[in-house]
């Protein structure tokens, strides 16, 4: 994996350097730390695909040696591609600017052009971070950056065009003629988005913290294939013996992890929390923050979390637009994963790699859409739940801050017979953890077996060599 420039958390407006190397190149250009050094579209004859210039003063700090495989465009080219940014070409608008659909005259390729608002939230630093990150990071679940424009004070980014828009467009405020996402598609989107995060956390070196994981930043290609977009707030994660990086609190309210919002201490587990929020959006169909709902239901996490402890209420968490067309076991499993991701304590959350393992299994399960709706299936022991409400995600009911126990010393709640026990969220969480441990054990066994075979081959080779010399 290529390496990235390190961004000094104390000076958010400048980029500073650390020593990294690119194993693929021997002669490497140097990227200046100031946005003014980005080549404009007019510089293409001299430098078509590389951002950079030589160090001009010993007072300036260089960022690492690297090359940027992104095209440069003139403002005139992008204006022509979007027909002078006509309103009918507008795809969307946010705090950072507007996104237009366009067609490049040179190649005929359909693209999405983000024109940054000069008075908006995304400044020069965020623009440069996004160009660098998306030029160096490549994965099927990350959006592809085609190029950029830095003509004068114009800042534009050119991406591949993804025809299905964002996940937010398919979850919230749907028009009457738009079909809601079915259960299987939601699980596949969650699994793909998690794989994008896994690449940033585990494959990139050093790790990258996305910092702005939300439904509007998950774009959908054909077949609802998810891709993470908008890397302006991305941050390099801690390396060495550091447990976190300290930075200004940035992101979107409702998605930020509590420890990051309170202390500014950022870890990869902060992204896991944000993923849990988006996953709950996929399950419930609700927005992370919705001021139009009654008091007590406006924040998705505070509304959903109490229901995890009451098995009777779990079906209420399913999106009504699914109309009961989901597997009850799948719902329990999905809620178990979501509840682990949104734990208050960062240390209690799983690593994104474990989430990918669980979701890959969940998204691979086929579901018969012609089956009876889940809300019509009677749950065994439902009448008994009036007296005992155990068996939720956590498998416990708290009364006055204490966990109630039955006479046998176990957790309160009715006993589960075969199939119900198998489907309960408590058992699901245990199964998920057990499966993850089993997969690790299998991987270790395979590695041991390969090492053993290598040693055996080496011994056989050594024996034959010795016999030949005799």
Automatic annotation (TrEMBL):
<protein>
    <submittedName>
        <fullName>Uncharacterized protein</fullName>
    </submittedName>
</protein>
């Amino acid at each position: 994996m290529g390496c990235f420039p390190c961004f000094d958390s104390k000076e958010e407006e400048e980029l500073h350097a650390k020593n990294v190397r690119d194993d693929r190149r021997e002669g490497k250009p140097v990227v200046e730390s100031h946005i003014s050094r980005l080549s404009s579209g007019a510089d293409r004859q001299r430098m078509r695909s590389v951002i950079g210039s030589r160090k001009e003063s010993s007072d300036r700090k260089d960022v690492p040696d690297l090359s940027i495989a992104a095209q440069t465009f003139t403002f005139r080219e992008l204006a022509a591609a979007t027909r002078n940014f006509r309103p009918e070409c507008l795809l969307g608008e946010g705090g950072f600017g507007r996104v237009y659909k366009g067609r490049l005259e040179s190649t005929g390729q359909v693209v999405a052009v983000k024109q940054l608002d000069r008075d908006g939230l995304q400044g020069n630093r965020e623009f440069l971070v996004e160009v660098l990150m998306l030029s160096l990071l490549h994965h099927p679940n990350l959006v592809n950056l085609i190029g950029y424009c830095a003509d004068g004070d114009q800042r534009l980014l050119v991406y591949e065009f993804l025809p299905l828009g964002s996940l937010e467009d398919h979850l919230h405020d749907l028009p009457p003629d738009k079909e809601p996402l079915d259960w299987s598609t939601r699980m596949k989107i969650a699994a793909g988005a998690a794989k994008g995060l896994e690449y940033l956390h585990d494959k990139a070196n050093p790790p990258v913290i996305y910092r702005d994981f939300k439904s509007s930043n998950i774009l959908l290609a054909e077949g609802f294939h998810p891709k993470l977009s908008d890397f302006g707030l991305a941050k390099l994660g801690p390396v060495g013996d550091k447990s976190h990086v300290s930075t200004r609190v940035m992101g979107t309210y409702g998605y930020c992890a509590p420890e990051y919002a309170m202390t500014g201490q950022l870890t990869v587990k902060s992204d896991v929390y944000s993923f849990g929020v988006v996953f709950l959006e996929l399950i419930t169909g609700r927005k992370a923050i919705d001021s139009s709902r009654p008091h007590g239901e406006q924040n998705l996490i505070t509304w959903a979390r109490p229901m995890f402890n009451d098995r009777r209420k779990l079906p209420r968490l399913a999106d009504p637009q699914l109309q009961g067309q989901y597997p009850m076991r799948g719902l329990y499993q999905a809620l178990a994963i979501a509840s682990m991701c949104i734990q208050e304590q960062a240390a209690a959350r799983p690593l994104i790699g474990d989430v990918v393992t669980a979701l890959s299994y969940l998204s691979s399960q086929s579901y018969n859409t012609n089956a009876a709706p889940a809300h019509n299936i009677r749950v065994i022991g439902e009448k008994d739940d009036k007296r005992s409400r155990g068996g939720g995600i956590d498998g416990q009911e708290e009364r006055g801050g204490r966990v109630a126990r039955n006479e046998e010393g176990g957790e309160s709640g009715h006993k589960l017979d075969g199939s119900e026990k198998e489907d309960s969220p408590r058992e699901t969480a245990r199964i998920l953890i057990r499966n993850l441990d089993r997969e690790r054990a299998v991987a270790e066994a395979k590695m041991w077996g390969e090492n053993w075979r290598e040693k055996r081959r080496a011994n056989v080779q050594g024996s034959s060599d010795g016999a030949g010399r005799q």
